[in-house]
Amino acid sequence: MGDGDKVPSNLQVIFILGGPGAGKGTQCTRLAHDYHLEHLSLGDVMRKERDTPGSEHGELIARNMRQGKIGPMEITVSLLRKAIIDAIVQTDSRLFLIDGFPRKMDQLLLFENTVCTATCAVYLDTSGEDRWRRLLNRAVVDGRQDDTDEIIEKRFVTFEETCMTVIEHLECQGRVERVQGDGNIAEVYVSICQALKARLGGALTGRKPVLELTPSCTNPETASILSMESRI
Fold this sequence. Notes:
Layout: E1 12-18, H1 24-34, E2 38-41, H2 42-50, H3 58-66, H4 73-91, E3 95-99, H5 105-114, E4 120-125, H6 128-142, H7 149-172, E5 176-180, H8 185-200, H9 223-226
Parallel strand pairs: 1-3, 1-4, 2-3, 4-5
Helix pairs in contact: 2-3, 2-4, 4-5
């Protein structure tokens, strides 16, 4: 699908934000499993483009990732827009989670001007120490090349200098749900679900009957996701 394809007017997008290692991907994976939500990770979208043979943006994306930098907003938003349209064609979904985006104000403004206005953002508020531990664990488990000590440090600096501005901007507009992201994955998941249900109401529906969402009672079919704590 090309950039000229139209985005449906009833599209709803929820940004999942938080510092490096906050657990965005793990929480989104379970949300997409349990509810009628499509999950797009900015990191995954960029890595896919980086690894696509003949990509006109691949080399630039690889260089930015090595340096812990945020790439040009036009490329980032264009790739996300295409990923959204492709997912709509495949699933007919209208409710999307995008994790790790937007990371700068210009990305937010371009996205909302060319794709849609985000419904809200969930901000996973975590301590730097906990995030650092998670990232180092992920580097060992997943072999992520962008999880070295040097790159992690640069990503932390980038988050504090640019991403927090986006969160504060959205918060001033009443579009942020703050969730404490430290600690047990299941407890964080419960808090996110409660925030999204309060925000979305009937728009958030389960893929199947959802069990009581408590830290001690989780869907057996998603137990493997909850066991991924060392990978967030």
